[in-house]
C-alpha cells in the first residue's frame, strides 16, 4: 500500500533582504492512512514552514520549493496548478491552525461558513449541507449546535471556535489533516478537551494526520510516530514509544529531559538545553546542534551529518528509527559512565542555570568562528 503523503527531500527557501535562507532543508517523511505523525521541535525549527509548504500557503513570490510532496499515490502537490490546489485545500486536505480566527471569517455566521465549505467541496444541496454541518458540530461536542449555526465567531469562546474549525476541517471528509499547534492558544482544561476530541475523532475516520506541536506531552497523547526537527532538518524519526523510551539524538534527550512529568513536580530541577536555535543566517556546517550539545566532539563539526538508521544496543527490532548524530550509539554508555562517576547526568544536560548559560557563550563563539572561516573560504 502506498503512503497517503510522501514528502521527499523538501527544501523551502525564502528570498529575504539579507539573501536567501533555507528554512526547511531536505526534509523527508511519510504519513499513512489512519496514522498521526507528530512534528516536534523548538520554536523556529521549521515545523510550520513544513506544513505551509505541503499546503502551498507561503508567499509565492519570495518562496522556492524543491523536492516532492506526493499525495495519495503520486499527485505532486508542489506542481499542482493553483486552481486544483485550491480545491484540495479544505477538501481532501483539512487544516487546523493555532488561531481559530485565522480560519474563520468574522462577518459570516458559523452555519454560513460550514455550509459554504460543504457546498464548495461536496455535491450536497443546501438542506443536506445544513444537516451535515449540524452533525459535524454535534460530533465536536459543542454545546447547542443549532444555536451555534446562527452565531458569529466572536460570540463563541476560544475552545468553541477551535471546535468549529475542527468541524470545518473534517466536514468534507479529508484524506489528510494538517494541525499546526491546534491547542496552544487554549487554556489547559480546554486544551485537554480538544485533544481528547481529536483523539476520539481519529478513530472515526481513516484520514492521516500531521500534528505539529512543541509539546512532547501532546505528542505522547496523540501521535503514532514522531519526527523531531532542528534548524530545518529532521534529526530523529521513529514511533512514539521508541522516542520516549530510547531517544537516540542528544537534542531529543534534552527535550524529553526538560519536559515536566508527573514524577518531576519541581520544574526548577529540570535540565536545560543551553543556548537557542541559531538563526538561518548562521547555519553551522557540521552537526547543526553541536554548539548546544554536551556530547559534541571535533568530528561533529567537520562535516554535515546524515540521517541514518540507529543501531544502538537498545535499538528496537522491527521499528524504524532514524537519527542524525554520529555519536548516537555511544551516548547511552557515556551517560552511564557519568552516572557511575556520581555526576547528576540528566541525560548530559545541566540542571544548573549558571552552568547551562556558560554554553551559549561557547556556542556563539563557535558559530562566529565558523562564519569567519566560511567567509575566508569564499574570498
Ligand atoms: N516568509 C519567511 N521569510 C523568511 N524567513 C521565514 C519566513 N517564514 C518563516 N521563516 C523562518 O523560517 C524558520 C522556521 O520557521 P517556522 O515558523 O517553520 O518555525 P516553527 O518550528 O514552526 O516555530 P514556531 O513553533 O515558533 O511556529 C524561522 O527561522 C523563521 O524565522
From TrEMBL:
SUPFAM superfamilies reported in the protein's UniProt record: P-loop containing nucleoside triphosphate hydrolases
Keyword terms: ATP-binding, Cell membrane, Membrane, Nucleotide-binding, Transport
Pfam families, per the entry: ABC_tran (PF00005), oligo_HPY (PF08352)
Matches recorded under InterPro entries: AAA+_ATPase, ABC_Ni/Peptide_Import, ABC_transporter-like_ATP-bd, ABC_transporter-like_CS, Oligopep_ABC_C, P-loop_NTPase
Record field: compositional bias (Basic and acidic residues): 363-379
Region (Disordered): 336-379
Membrane topology field: Peripheral membrane protein
Gene3D superfamilies (UniProt xref): P-loop containing nucleotide triphosphate hydrolases
Gene Ontology MF term list: ATP binding; ATP hydrolysis activity
Organism domain of life: Bacteria
GO cellular component: plasma membrane
Domain ABC transporter: residue ranges: 5-256
Subcellular compartments: Cell membrane
Gene Ontology biological-process annotations: peptide transport
UniProt xrefs under SMART domains: AAA (SM00382)
Similarity annotation: Belongs to the ABC transporter superfamily.
PANTHER family: DIPEPTIDE TRANSPORT ATP-BINDING PROTEIN DPPD, OLIGOPEPTIDE TRANSPORT ATP-BINDING PROTEIN APPD
Name of this chain's protein: ABC transporter ATP-binding protein
Source species of the chain: Nesterenkonia sedimenti
Lineage: Bacteria, Bacillati, Actinomycetota, Actinomycetes, Micrococcales
Amino acid at each position: 500500500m502506498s503512503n497517503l503523503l510522501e514528502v521527499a527531500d523538501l527544501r523551502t527557501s525564502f528570498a529575504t533582504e539579507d539573501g536567501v535562507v533555507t528554512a526547511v532543508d531536505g526534509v523527508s517523511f511519510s504519513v499513512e492512512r489512519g496514522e498521526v505523525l507528530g512534528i516536534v521541535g523548538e520554536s523556529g525549527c521549521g515545523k510550520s514552514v513544513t506544513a505551509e509548504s505541503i499546503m502551498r500557503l507561503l508567499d509565492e513570490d519570495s518562496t522556492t520549493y524543491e523536492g516532492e510532496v506526493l499525495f495519495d499515490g503520486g499527485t505532486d502537490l508542489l506542481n499542482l496548478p493553483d486552481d486544483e490546489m485550491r480545491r484540495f485545500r479544505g477538501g481532501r486536505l483539512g487544516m487546523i491552525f493555532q488561531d481559530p480566527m485565522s480560519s474563520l471569517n468574522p462577518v459570516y455566521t458559523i452555519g454560513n461558513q460550514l455550509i459554504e465549505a460543504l457546498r464548495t467541496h461536496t455535491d450536497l444541496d443546501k438542506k443536506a449541507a445544513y444537516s451535515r454541518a449540524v452533525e459535524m458540530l454535534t460530533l465536536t461536542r459543542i454545546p447547542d449546535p443549532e444555536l451555534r449555526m446562527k452565531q458569529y465567531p466572536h460570540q463563541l469562546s476560544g475552545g468553541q471556535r477551535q471546535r468549529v474549525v475542527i468541524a470545518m476541517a473534517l466536514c468534507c471528509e479529508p484524506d489528510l489533516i494538517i494541525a499546526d499547534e491546534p491547542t496552544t492558544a487554549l487554556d489547559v482544561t480546554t486544551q485537554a478537551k480538544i485533544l481528547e476530541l481529536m483523539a476520539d475523532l481519529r478513530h472515526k475516520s481513516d484520514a492521516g494526520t500531521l500534528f505539529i506541536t512543541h509539546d512532547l506531552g501532546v505528542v505522547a497523547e496523540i501521535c503514532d510516530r514522531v519526527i523531531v526537527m532542528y534548524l530545518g532538518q529532521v534529526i530523529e524519526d521513529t514511533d512514539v514509544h521508541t522516542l520516549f523510551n530510547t531517544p537516540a539524538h542528544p537534542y531529543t534527550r534534552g527535550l524529553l529531559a526538560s519536559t515536566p512529568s508527573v514524577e518531576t513536580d519541581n520544574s526548577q530541577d529540570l535540565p536545560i538545553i543551553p543556548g537557542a536555535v541559531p538563526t538561518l543566517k548562521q547555519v553551522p556546517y557540521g552537526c547543526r546542534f553541536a554548539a548546544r550539545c554536551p556530547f559534541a566532539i571535533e568530528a561533529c563539526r567537520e562535516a554535515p551529518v546524515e540521517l541514518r538508521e540507529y543501531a544502538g544496543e537498545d535499538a528496537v527490532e522491527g521499528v524504524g528509527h532514524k537519527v542524525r548524530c554520529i555519536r548516537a550509539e555511544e551516548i547511552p554508555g557515556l551517560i552511564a559512565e557519568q552516572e557511575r562517576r556520581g555526576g547528576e547526568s540528566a541525560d548530559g544536560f545541566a540542571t544548573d542555570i549558571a552552568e547551562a548559560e556558560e554554553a551559549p557563550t561557547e556556542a556563539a563563539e563557535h558559530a562566529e568562528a565558523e562564519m569567519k572561516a566560511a567567509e575566508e573560504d569564499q574570498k
